[in-house]
Write a structure and sequence with these properties.
The complex is a heterodimer of chains A (538) and B (329). Chain A contains 22 helices and 20 strands. Chain A has 538 residues and is α/β, with parallel strands linked by helices. In chain A, helix 2 packs across helix 4 and helix 4 packs parallel to helix 5. Classes of the chains: A alpha/beta (538), B alpha/beta (329).
Chain lengths: 538, 329
């Protein structure tokens, strides 16, 4: 019965809340809340159930490499003895939470290297394409590429993190007709072939964003990581209407015309974030389907988590690895590949929704792309809620213009001193003066981006680049422009106010506060995620 | 204070004690009811002129092990594998594992055949404690009938604690393979060292075809495994174990191909184990390149005098990663 259901997953669901609807699950950082939503004017968006994974993924990978899409020859035809091969792969920010071993990157890279060995390729470099993200640690790299690949390449210095601030290691390829510089890792640029190994968790990932952003630096990124581009990307998860996407594509075109040969390998995973069974399985079930065991487990978690300190809770949650399964793999020419990849992402994540509501509620979980094995600081809370979750739509936002977003998260005034040093200064020095993304970009961005100390920490420690907190704030620009108010339930009031949002103790209080903006009896949508869903709003 | 005895006195007293003990034994044997006991308290003698009925051996390959696969014995075995087997193995072998994640694609209830090179008595407990739980629960281990099952006590202990089943290695017989095939068909996984015994000199010996035959017959995959470092712990000819770091390198499952001969499959398995050995002594990438250039070193070592074979072994030490490229944070 369970197997039958797994083979035939149900699509997403829009549940109209009535008096019989059980309280809805809200993620709340390293914890959870169960909240009753007002009957008659609320709806809950549930993600589609996980699609079945591919049987024998290794065989599918080999098939994809030999049957590429677009005008690309098979990978084996591109590999020759004596060539320079660079394999770039997505960094720690994908997938979320990290997946169980073997990681897809490991499978794909092993298959690519297997072919390379077969064709006598000796000069191979592997680069973690992390742009301005923090460098990956040894254990993170080992998890991504596997011990075998790590032990074969890292000791000789041929597996490493991309360094966007290495003056010798970066090169400008050209300029787009819109005046955007195109910068890329020199080793990649000088290679006879770049093989990019991607994991497409959301529709924004992949395509030219892989190389044009992942292997790039501040010189190129500033052209699309800015408030103007973000406000015009409606949303940046919808390629047809994303200015971010268009800018990346223009840069990709320059890369292509410069003669750099790229063999793109894109993969998609299902949204089996918490497992069909196991200790967190109830988090991806619909509440009325929770069994006695699920309820008992949930109560146990709540009781235990209330007694733990934040650090212990973080350690416990960070130890969760999702049992994601490969749902598709495409390889070949970048744009042809990405077109199919996006369809597979939509197939797993899209939920049809009718119309907008006055209020959008969302539970913010413990993890976002920038705090893996780290602390979810207030800027990242804002970025995940207003940057990512708000933008998970196609068509129009789930909440009307001038509406309210209510998020639940403890939002501690806490930062990881190694990973997020520039975030601390951004929060203390910049947000204390202004919250306006455009003003922030004009007054403060350059100083942070060119700060030698932040550069040093980015290059030699494990710090995000100095400009990274700015990008997180720009990520929120579209939502800030669209919304009338943002409320965080259960957050640290000082931290929430510093973000420019309103704190509330309970969800009921938050609804009360929202009535100032949206009037009494507002309509409500609850975005029940993770697992990830994307709303197709008509 | 005890008086120190002269050596002559000491010998005399020792002789007296021995005599007293021997006398006791003799007196027990001479007890009347033992001496005079008759059938049925004593085994019957065979009448003259009649050929004695051939007695069925209960040791060696005839040793019955089915009792060791029932629930009570399996429970004892599982408990024993956790304590004391696991701490002992950890103490002596400190295993590092490579490639165990490659086994995650094998379906849940798929029986498999684990095939590994063999250097030491610790190989079996090392593998038993390192395998994922789903196979450990239903695992039988092929053990030499003439060694592990030579007496009923060693056979019972081997069957109970490591799940051993006897394999005849000195005679050609189908009984062992029939028994094992029946178990595999019932969902049991099978672990075997196809070299037929521990390495005499540290180099590998040719793989026998039994595992490949079973794989083809039962249509189950073979998991090639290479063990490094166990030879230093309890190699052939040693009675006391020494501590050593070990590496267990799991290869990708090898499925039998329709119409394939067992000799060809055995060759594929041997090459795969050789590639794993090469990987352990160099790295995955170098070993792959050598594999495609058909330059993978064999497991058997050079065809040369014994001192040169021993000399060459010293080059196969695993590359240690002494220098962490990234500090721990």
């Amino acid at each position: 019965m369970a197997d039958e259901r797994r083979r035939n997953p149900r699509p997403g669901l829009v549940l109209e809340v009535d008096r019989s609807t059980p309280p809805a699950l809200f993620h709340y950082g390293e914890g959870f809340r169960l909240e009753k939503l007002p009957a008659g004017r609320s709806r809950i968006l549930y993600p589609p159930e996980p699609l079945p994974g591919l049987n024998n993924p290794d065989q599918h990978i080999r098939d994809a490499l030999e049957n590429p899409l677009g005008d690309s020859p098979p990978l084996s035809a591109l590999l020759t003895s004596g060539m320079k091969l660079t394999i770039a792969f997505d960094d720690i920010s994908l997938p979320l939470p990290p997946m169980r071993s073997p990681d897809i990157r490991q499978r794909v890279i092993e298959a690519v290297l297997d072919l390379a060995a077969q064709h006598g390729v000796d000069d191979v470099h592997l680069i973690a394409a992390l742009a301005l993200h923090r460098r990956m640690t040894e254990s993170e790299l080992r998890h991504a590429v596997g011990d075998r690949v790590y032990d074969a390449f890292a000791p000789s210095g041929n597996l490493y993190n991309h360094d966007a601030e290495d003056p010798e290691g970066m090169t400008v390829i050209g300029i787009t007709p819109h005046g955007e510089e195109v910068q890329i890792n020199r080793r990649a640029a000088e290679s006879d072939l770049i093989v990019y190994v991607n994991i497409n968790l959301v529709a924004m990932d992949g395509g030219w964003k892989s190389t044009a952003t992942g292997l790039s630096g501040y010189t190129a990124l500033r052209h699309h990581h800015n408030p103007q581009t973000m406000v015009q990307s409606r949303s940046f998860m919808d390629q047809e209407n994303s200015e971010l996407h268009k800018s990346n594509w223009r840069q990709g075109k320059v890369l292509k015309e410069s003669g750099i040969q790229i063999f793109q390998i894109e993969t998609t995973v299902n949204n089996n974030t918490f497992g069909h069974d196991g200790p967190l399985a109830m988090l991806q079930k619909r509440e009325w389907e929770w069994t006695l065991r699920d309820r008992a487990t949930f109560i146990g978690y709540q009781t235990g988590l209330r007694r733990m300190n934040p650090s212990t809770k973080r350690k416990i949650f960070s130890s969760w690895y999702s049992p994601y399964e490969l749902t598709s793999i495409q390889a070949g020419e970048v744009e042809a590949v990405h077109k199919q990849t996006t369809e597979h992402v939509y197939k797993q994540q899209l939920v049809n929704v009718e119309g907008q509501t006055d209020i959008l509620t969302m539970g913010i979980p413990y993890i976002c792309p920038y705090n893996v094995n780290s602390v979810m600081n207030p800027i990242l809370v804002a970025c995940l809620g207003l940057g990512y979750f708000f933008n998970m739509y196609r068509g129009k936002p789930l909440v009307r213009k001038g509406g309210v977003v209510i998020m639940t998260h403890p939002t501690p005034w806490e930062f990881h001193p190694v990973h997020h040093p520039s975030y601390i200064d951004f929060f203390e020095r910049v947000l204390s003066q202004t919250k306006n993304p455009t003003e922030i970009s004009q007054r403060f961005e350059k100083a942070f981006a060119e700060d030698e100390w932040y550069r040093h920490l980015y290059r030699t420690s494990y710090a995000y680049h100095g400009v990274h907190p700015f990008y997180m704030w720009y990520w929120c620009a579209h939502a800030l422009d669209h919304l009338g108010r943002v409320i965080i339930v259960g957050g640290n009031p000082d931290a929430v106010r510093r973000l420019g949002f309103r704190p509330a103790t309970t969800l009921h209080d938050a609804f009360e506060i929202a009535t100032d903006v949206v009037g009494s009896q507002p309509t409500i949508t609850h975005y029940h995620s993770p697992p990830i869903l994307m709303a197709d709003v008509q | 204070m005890a008086q120190k005895l002269s050596s002559r006195e000491l010998r005399r007293k020792t002789k007296q004690i021995r005599h007293a003990i021997d006398g006791t034994r003799r007196r027990i044997i001479n007890l009347k009811f033992i001496r005079t006991a008759q059938f049925p308290y004593r085994a019957p003698s065979t009448p003259k002129g009649i050929d004695p009925h051939p007695t069925e051996s209960k040791t060696g390959s005839s040793f019955q092990t089915s009792w060791a696969r029932r629930t009570p014995a399996r429970t004892i075995r599982m408990l024993f594998s956790e304590f004391p087997m696991r701490p002992i193995v950890q103490f002596f072998a400190k295993p590092a594992m490579i490639g165990v994640e490659t086994l995650s694609d094998i379906p849940e209830y798929q029986p498999v055949i684990f095939v590994a090179n063999h250097h030491s008595h610790i190989d079996t407990p090392l593998l038993i404690t390192s395998l994922p739980l789903r196979w450990r629960k239903k695992l039988v281990v092929g053990a030499a009938a003439d060694y592990f099952f030579s007496t009923r006590i060693t056979g019972a202990l081997s069957a109970l604690f490591i799940g051993a089943i006897p394999i005849e290695r000195k005679k050609i017989t189908r009984k062992s393979s029939d028994d094992i095939a029946e178990l595999i068909d019932k969902g049991w996984s099978f672990m075997v060292f196809p070299e037929g015994g521990r390495s005499p000199d540290g180099w590998g010996q040719p793989f026998r075809g039994g595992a490949a035959y079973l794989s083809l017959r039962c249509k189950v995959p073979i998991i090639p495994i290479h063990l490094t470092g166990t030879g230093a712990i309890l190699r052939k000819g040693k009675n006391l174990p020494k501590r050593s770091e070990t590496t267990i390198n799991f290869g990708k499952p090898i499925w039998p191909i329709d119409g394939e001969k067992s000799r060809s499959l055995a060759k594929r398995v041997e090459i795969s184990v050789a590639q794993l050995a090469d990987e352990t002594s160099s790295n995955w990438w170098e070993s792959k390149k050598r594999l495609y250039e058909k330059e993978t070193p064999t497991l058997h070592g050079p065809q040369a005098s014994s001192w040169r074979r021993a000399w060459d072994l010293s080059h196969l030490k695993r590359q240690q990663e002494n220098n962490r490229l990234w500090p721990k944070i």
